[in-house]
Each structure stands twice: as C-alpha cells, then as structure tokens.
Design a protein that fits this description.
Elements: E1 9-13, H1 20-33, E2 41-45, H2 51-58, E3 63-67, H3 84-89, E4 94-97, H4 100-106, H5 110-122, E5 126-131, H6 135-139, H7 143-155, H8 160-164, E6 167-170, H9 184-201, H10 204-209, E7 211-214, H11 220-227, E8 234-237, H12 244-253
Parallel strand pairs: 1-2, 1-8, 2-3, 3-4, 4-5, 5-6, 6-7
C-alpha cells in the first residue's frame, strides 16, 4: 500500500495557548479557510478548558477535535486529571499521548503512555502516540534505539485493530520549537524505520495502513516537501497552528 492509500492527517497542537475567546476566533477563521479541503483529515487540539466550545464550532465542519492528554482512570480521587469519558463527552475524537513535553516536564513514561493509549482506545478515541529522540541521542547514534523503545513501549499489547485505530507521531525533540527541522530525508528515514518496526511486530499489511505524522517546526514553507516523502503521512503542528492562515496552508499542502 502506497502513501496515496493513507489519508494524510494534519493536527494542530495548541499547547498552553488560547483562552476560550481566542480559541473561538482561531477556530472560526480556520473553519472557513479549510471548508473546501477534501482528502485530508484536519484536527485541532485546544486546552481542556476550550474543548467543548471548540467542539460546538466545528460540529458540522471537516475539522475534528483532539485533547492534549488524558488520565487512564475513568473517574475517582485524581485531582486535576481529565478522563477519556469526559473528553469524549466534550466532543473529542483524538487524544495526543506522550508528547515530548509531557515526557520532559511531567514525567511521562512508556508505561504511562501505554496505559493512556489503551484507555483512549477502550473509549473509541484515537490516540496520536508521540515518539522521538533528543539531540544528544541523535548525535550519539541512538536514534533508532530510542524510537524502538518508544514505539514498542507505547504500543505494547495492542491488537492489530487497535494499532490501526492509532496514529504515530514522530517528533525529533531537537526540532520542536527550535526552528530546526529534520530534512525530508531525515524524516523519511525514521518514518520508514517506524513502519519496519510495526511490520516486524504485526504484519506488512497492518504496517502499510498506519499513519505516521511528522512533528517538529512544521511551517507552510517546509510542509509540502516533508509530506512528499513516501512514509510521511501528515504533520503534528505546533506554533504554526496558532495562526489560521498558516495552519490552513499546511493542510492544503497535504492534499495529494
């Protein structure tokens, strides 16, 4: 199965940005700009406080909603956490899990990522499972070791059907918010390796269907070239998703 058989998927991770009113303005503008975009899946990931409001705005549009994290218990004495049933109730279809910032600042591990992935899937929410190496890993030649660790740890115990409901996002940590971007060839090399890992763990057929996004300083200027690579199936966009025009340009560049 070639890239043309996998629908590109562009997700905007707003991180800790946008009040509810700012989220309304951004989403309303974006909805108009991408209204005619077909053949691409479009996702926005606001903060928890804006999810339900944004969900109302995009209800009859081609934009889908993601949360930026989830807790693995459905309810209980877990102050400050948000559960999968709550996110589904707020209108989410996707959850970003294991973003490098969650790993770096908040102690996320492969084990907690795996628990969260399984919880999301059990509630028919699609996880966007983030994997990626630090600069020192790449410079020491440990990129594949780190990627294998993240991929195998994050997807441990998933059935083929569950994996096919998941998205992998490769985010070289050295390229997030730094202005550095992996070259298209560097991105393709790691995406191809991830697909090989999935082929070895599952099958060639399953691996060929899983979508693998690239995340790391994606901009309108580099998006088309990155996504022209055979194993790059979309983008997890940070800063450029905070302006409707730039995010819409990236969405359009993904349309085959």
């Amino acid at each position: 199965m070639g890239r043309t058989m996998r629908t590109p998927i562009i997700a905007g991770n707003w991180k800790l940005n946008n009040t509810i009113s700012e989220a309304v303005a951004l989403t309303t503008a974006l909805k108009d700009l991408v209204a005619d975009c077909a053949g691409v899946e479009i996702i926005v990931a606001p903060t928890f406080t804006a999810l339900a409001t944004v969900s109302d705005i995009i209800r009859d549009s081609n934009i889908r909603l993601a949360a930026q994290d989830v807790y693995w218990e459905d309810s209980g004495a877990f102050t400050g956490e948000v559960s999968a049933p709550m996110l589904k109730d707020a209108g989410c279809d996707y959850i970003i899990i294991g973003h490098s910032e969650r790993r770096q600042y908040f102690g996320e591990t492969n084990e907690s990522v795996n628990q969260k992935v399984k919880t999301a899937l059990s509630h028919d929410l699609k996880p966007i499972i983030c994997v990626g190496e630090q600069l020192e890993d790449r410079e020491a030649g440990r990129t594949e070791t780190v990627i294998e660790n993240h991929v195998s740890g994050g997807t441990a115990g998933l059935s083929s059907a569950q994996l096919l409901s998941s998205i992998i996002a490769y985010e070289p940590v050295w390229a997030i918010g730094t202005g550095k971007t992996a070259t298209p060839a560097q991105a393709q090399e790691v995406h191809s390796y991830i697909r090989k890992l999935l082929k070895d763990a599952y099958s060639a057929d399953v691996a060929s269907q899983v979508r693998i996004q690239y995340g790391g300083s994606v901009k309108p200027e580099n998006a088309a070239e990155l996504m022209s690579q055979p194993d790059v199936d979309g983008a997890l966009v940070g800063g450029a998703s905070l302006q409707a025009e730039s995010f819409a340009e990236i969405v359009k560049s993904a349309i085959l």
